[in-house]
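Task: sequence design from structure.
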């Protein structure tokens, strides 16, 4: 395997690859990875040892491997069994990447590995992963003023592995490694460095935003693709299969989460992902499906009529959700806090639900366990949106402040009318009139679950809806579903981008 293919396999880039794709910003360079590591130790600004553990080799060699997100963020290295160690003394960092060594016999099964010498291509000093424990013993014994401090990032049962009761089971591989280390260094202070990594991840670089845009582009293409196939009598898993096929065909890594494809009553279950029901004429289909691309996630939901035409009842619910999403959109700009978007969307949702008789008034409540609960929560019980990035539920600067240029997140209002809504309202004297009043509307709109979710990037002047290629207006959805067509061609742009970052 050539040097460039080694790097591409590890999700990395070289000057050659950059030169081949100068017009494509969807690459994270070694310079950027190096800057992230430097930013981590500068942010913590404490001498000691920084230990970042990658994901272990899968239990079975035929299982898929996915790198730990924080390790990937700091290294870009996508092979299993790796670890990053940074020894910081007097403000100077010495960085070591521990990797599985090259072994031709094992590589028959695993594929060729970068190896210890190959780590130099990443700008890091390579070490055999078998020596990790011995090296940590050596550097922790070297002595630090005030005693050794270990800053940890890994898959621990409790934050940073700092306070894990011995009886806590199951113990992760990272737990067990750290437990043995703490046993040998009883005076060592262990500090969780994960919050510092997450704080860095909250600000997306231009390369990260480009990859998220590509994830949204591929995900939107899949949503558009399935519209030409949906019909009564199909099974939900057929839609799921076509969407996930489209992800991979256009360079997507894998689904960002378990694809949610719920028809009829399943459309009202938020995280339904069995995807195994046959769809009927007159029902809606709620599809929450997206892909990772180059390690970064999108998140898109569309709700469509199974027969290609929205019924009058569906046309009453759908605009409430769409108008709520658009009301939130209108608030997007740098400096605005996310609660402003939420308030705008919620006002539309509550007003719409009251108008069609599903609640008594926008601010009406009902009694539950001795407390007053907003009536709208019977139909809208989740948040408005979340950041996206390396994780489908990621971090962003607005989580602790206001939107900034480059913030990236979803907006996903919904209305879910479960057939048993009246039955789940406590049968108390205070609720009697309310239950009776909304019963006809619940029966009329039963089993209609509508969620509309798009992905947004904040710009200096407003925002970009990066998932806009997936139709969301009712008339546009109906037109797309009415088009006769076979399987569409691959998206040439996404395929070319994939070739350039992973030749």
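Answer:
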């Amino acid at each position: 395997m050539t040097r460039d293919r080694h790097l591409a396999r590890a999700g990395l880039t070289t000057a050659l690859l950059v030169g081949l794709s100068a017009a494509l910003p969807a690459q994270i360079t070694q310079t950027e990875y190096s800057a992230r590591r430097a930013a981590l130790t500068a942010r913590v600004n404490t001498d000691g040892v920084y230990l970042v553990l990658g994901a272990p080799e899968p239990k079975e060699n035929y299982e898929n491997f996915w790198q730990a997100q924080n390790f990937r963020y700091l290294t870009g290295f996508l092979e299993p069994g790796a670890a990053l160690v940074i020894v910081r003394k007097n403000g100077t960092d010495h960085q070591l990447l521990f990797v599985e060594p090259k072994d031709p016999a094992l590589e028959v099964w695993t594929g060729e590995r970068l190896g210890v010498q190959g780590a130099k291509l990443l700008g890091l000093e390579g070490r055999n992963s078998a020596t990790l424990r011995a090296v940590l013993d050596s550097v922790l014994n070297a002595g630090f003023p005030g005693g050794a401090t270990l800053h940890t990032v890994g898959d621990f049962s409790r934050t940073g592995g700092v306070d894990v009761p011995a009886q806590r089971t199951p113990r992760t591989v990272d737990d067990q490694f750290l437990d043995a280390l703490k046993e040998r260094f009883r005076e060592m202070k262990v500090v969780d460095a994960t919050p510092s990594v997450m704080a860095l991840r909250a600000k997306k670089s231009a390369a990260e935003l480009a990859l998220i845009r590509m994830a949204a582009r591929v995900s939107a293409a899949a949503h558009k693709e399935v519209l030409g196939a949906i019909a009564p009598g199909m099974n939900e898993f057929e839609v799921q299969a076509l969407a996930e096929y489209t992800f991979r065909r256009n360079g997507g890594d894998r689904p960002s989460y378990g694809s949610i494809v719920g028809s009829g009553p399943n459309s009202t279950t938020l995280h339904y992902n069995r995807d195994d029901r046959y769809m009927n004429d007159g029902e809606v289909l709620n599809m929450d499906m997206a892909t990772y691309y180059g390690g970064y996630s999108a998140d898109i939901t569309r709700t469509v009529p199974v027969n290609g035409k929205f019924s009058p009842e569906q046309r009453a619910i759908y605009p409430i959700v769409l108008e709520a999403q658009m009301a939130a959109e209108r608030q997007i700009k740098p400096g605005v806090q996310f609660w402003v978007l939420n308030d705008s969307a919620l006002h539309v949702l509550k007003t719409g639900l009251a108008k069609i008789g599903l609640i008594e008034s926008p601010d009406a409540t009902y009694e539950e366990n001795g407390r007053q609960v907003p009536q709208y929560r019977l139909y809208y019980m989740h948040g408005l949106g979340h950041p996206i990035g390396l994780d489908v539920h990621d971090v962003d600067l607005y989580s602790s402040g206001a939107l900034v240029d480059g913030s990236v997140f979803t907006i996903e209002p919904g209305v879910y009318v479960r057939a048993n809504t009246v039955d789940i309202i406590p049968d108390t004297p205070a609720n009697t009139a309310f239950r009776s009043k909304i019963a006809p509307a619940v029966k009329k709109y039963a089993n209609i679950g509508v969620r509309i979710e798009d992905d947004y990037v904040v710009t200096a002047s407003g925002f970009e809806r990066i998932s806009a290629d997936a139709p969301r207006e009712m008339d546009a959805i109906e037109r797309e579903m009415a088009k006769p067509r076979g399987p569409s061609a691959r998206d040439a742009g996404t395929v070319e981008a994939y070739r350039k970052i992973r030749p």
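The first helix runs from residue 3 to 9.
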